[in-house]
Amino acid sequence: MTQHTLLIDADKLQDCGGVVIFDCRFSLADPSAGESDYLAGHIPGAHYLHLERDLSGPVGRHGGRHPLPAPEQFAATLARFGVGLDTRVVAYDAHRFAFASRLWWMMRALGYRAPLILDGGITAWQAAGGELESAVPQPAPCDAPAVGAYTRCCDIDGVRRQQAEGATLVDSREERRYLGLEEPIDPVAGHIPGAVNLPWQSVTGEDGKTLPVANQQARWADIPPDPVVYCGSGVTACVNLFSLALAGREDAVLYAGSWSDWCSHLDPA
C-alpha cells in the first residue's frame, strides 16, 4: 500500500463524494469528551464512533481495557451507518491517528475495504477552510455482511508462542511508560520482557500529519519480519501498524489485549 491508498488530504476530502465519514475523537482521560466535541462541531456528514461503545467489546478480568468487539457486533455497528464490505470510508480524529487507526485496523482485519485516514485530522480540515456542523446526520443503514474472525491479531498465548519462536515484540507506548518510570492507567508499570520501544507518536509530526514514507521505513528498518505490536490496550498500537503499512510492510500482528491484558495475568504477589 502507499500513502495514496491509506491517507486523504483535507482538500481532497472537501471534493470527495459518496463516502461514509467517521469521527473517532476520544479521550482516555474523559470518555465523554470526544462525543461532546463531535456534537459541538464535526466534518459535515460525519457519524460518530465511540471507542468504548463501538470499537471495543465488554471488559472482563482478562483481555485488556479495550478488547475487540465480537466481529458480528462490529459488522452490525458499521451496517447501521450503511457500511458494507466495499463501502468507501474516511476516518479522522484529533489525536495523531490514535483512534482513527483503530477503526482502520479493525475494518481491514475483518475483510472490509480499508478506510482512508484524514491526514492531520480535523485540525487539518479546519486549516484548509473546511466548515464544521453540529447537526447529526441521518444514517442510511444496510444489511450487515457475514464476517469471520479478526486476522493478524493474537492473545497472550499467541504472544508467548511467537516470542518463543523468536518474534520481536514492539511496545508502542511513550518511553517513560515503557521504562516503567510512570504508569497513569494500568495497575502495573513496565513492559513485556524482551520488547523494544517504538512510540506511536513518532509516526506523525507536531501538526498531526504523517511523516514521509522514507521516515516510516526508517522507523522499522531494525525491526525483523513478523513483529508483534502492542501498546496499553490495543488502540495506539494501531498507529504503528498504520506506519508499517505506509512503509510497505504487512507482516505485523497486533496483541489485541496489549499491556493491560498482560499485566492482568501477573501474580499480584
Please report which band the strand proportion falls in: under 5%, 5-15%, 15-25%, 25-35%, 35-45% or over 45%: 5-15%
Q: Biggest sheet: strands side by side, in what order?
A: 1-5-4-2-3
**What's the CATH architecture name of the largest domain?**
3-Layer(aba) Sandwich
| CA distance, first residue to last residue | 46 Å
Computed structural class: alpha/beta
Low-confidence segments, given as residue ranges, are: none
The CATH superfamily name of the largest domain is Rhodanese-like domain
Instruction: Name the average pLDDT.
Output: 96
CATH topology of the largest domain: Oxidized Rhodanese, domain 1
Q: Provide the helix percentage.
A: 25-40%
Report the major sheet.
5 strands, parallel
